[in-house]
């Protein structure tokens, strides 16, 4: 993947291994901005970057849609009290112009914008030639390509200072989260785009302040690179996202409670870890041998089906395989979800191979 600059090279003094971004969901009044800063200082909870929403994309009209440009002027208050970089969301070119005019240090692209390549491209064009870091939130839907695509659009206009934000994915059925985490998405992003830092936003994932610590800890356990936590001096009376904001004191407690983990220095794994990894290598070899053996028998069954004019998919047999293996797996401490995914994957390959068998060697019939 393309070279980009990590947060430590943004020229903003962001040297820490885990970046903490905090501040209110929305800037509401100059007094509110000042009070949040004062309470952050008093609670010893000054983040690395201060966040404040100036324009709020709301699901339905009628709720508070952000204070607009006036709020950008209040960012001077933050600079005065905390002397830290400031970030806000931009959703169109007018936002970009105003944010640049008022010296916002870091921009972020919101989830509702990331879904729309036209909107992302317009913002990218407005940023061509500008030296400013941009953080891209995941799109509303769990589409990794769209997330990477938005980062690439920024990179293509010369934005090298890039990071991603994992804020969860909209899900009509799963009501446990406001936005379902789908942890595999940020992990895949980090795997595909080497060195891409992903900041976790537990506030938007959980949707209520009680669950923030648990989700934040999981993000750190998985190896994400920082946290963005909505923080307000009086969360219950916040003009937006009242349920999920925490006070600076609560932010401090959350950060103090998190057990921050560190990436492994891959060059020097301990002897113990090396032994365990060798054992995994050996087992993986055996797994591959077994899979290859299974598929060679599947091919023989395919040949048999071809000779006897049988269909590839056999529902009764498949149900029996699925049910019995799932139960056996559960008894061996493997999760039901994992067993089902594994078996679906194996079955898909089986039927593909057999169908190919049916096509490739049509038995010669004497037609003349
Ligand atoms: C292997 C067969 O073909 C298909 C593949 C199966 C499998 O992978 O276990 C099971 C049932 C069939 O849908 C079979 O009919 O036995």
From TrEMBL:
Keyword Isomerase: yes
Domain (Chorismate mutase) ranges: 267-358
Leading EC class: isomerase
Record keywords, A-Z: Isomerase, Transferase
InterPro entries, per the entry: Aldolase_TIM (IPR013785), Chorismate_II_sf (IPR036263), Class-I_DAHP_synthase (IPR052899), CM_dom_sf (IPR036979), CM_II_prokaryot (IPR002701), DAHP1/KDSA (IPR006218)
Pfam families: CM_2, DAHP_synth_1
EC numbers on record: 5.4.99.5
Domain of life per record: Bacteria
Gene3D superfamilies reported for this sequence: Aldolase class I, Chorismate mutase
PANTHER family: PHOSPHO-2-DEHYDRO-3-DEOXYHEPTONATE ALDOLASE (PTHR43018), PROTEIN AROA(G) (PTHR43018:SF1)
The name this protein goes by in its record: chorismate mutase
């Amino acid at each position: 993947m393309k070279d980009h600059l990590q947060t430590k090279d943004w020229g903003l003094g962001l040297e820490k291994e885990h970046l903490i971004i905090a501040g209110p969901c929305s800037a509401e009044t100059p007094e509110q901005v000042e009070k949040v800063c004062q309470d952050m200082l008093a609670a010893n909870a000054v983040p690395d970057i201060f966040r404040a929403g100036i324009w709020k994309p709301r699901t339905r009209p009628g709720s508070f849609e952000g204070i607009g440009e006036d709020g950008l002027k209040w960012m001077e208050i933050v600079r005065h009290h905390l002397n830290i970089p400031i970030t806000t969301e931009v959703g169109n070119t007018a936002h970009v112009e105003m944010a640049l005019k008022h010296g916002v240090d870091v921009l972020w692209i919101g989830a509702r914008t990331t879904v729309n390549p036209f909107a992302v491209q317009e913002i990218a064009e407005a940023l061509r030639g500008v030296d400013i870091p941009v953080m891209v939130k995941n799109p509303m839907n769990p589409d990794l390509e769209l997330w990477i695509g938005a980062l690439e659009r920024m990179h293509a206009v010369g934005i090298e200072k890039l990071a991603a934000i994992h804020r969860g994915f909209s899900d009509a059925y799963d009501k446990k989260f406001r936005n379902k985490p789908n942890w595999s998405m940020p992990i895949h992003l980090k795997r595909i785009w080497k060195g891409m830092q992903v900041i976790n936003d537990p506030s938007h994932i959980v949707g209520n302040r009680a669950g923030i610590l648990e989700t934040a800890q999981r993000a750190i356990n998985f190896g994400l690179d920082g946290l963005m936590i909505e923080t307000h001096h009086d969360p219950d009376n916040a003009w937006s996202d009242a349920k999920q904001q925490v006070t600076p004191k609560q932010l401090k407690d959350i950060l103090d409670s998190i057990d921050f983990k560190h990436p492994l220095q891959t060059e020097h794994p301990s002897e113990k870890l090396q032994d365990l990894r060798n054992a995994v290598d050996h087992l993986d070899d055996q797994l591959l041998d077994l899979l290859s053996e299974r598929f060679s028998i599947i091919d023989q069954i395919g040949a048999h089906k071809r000779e006897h004019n049988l269909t590839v998919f056999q529902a009764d047999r498949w149900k029996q395989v699925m049910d019995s293996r799932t139960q056996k797996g559960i008894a061996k401490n493997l999760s039901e979800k994992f067993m089902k995914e594994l078996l679906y994957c194996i079955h898909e390959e089986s039927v593909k191979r057999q169908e190919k068998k049916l096509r490739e060697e049509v038995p010669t019939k004497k037609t003349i």
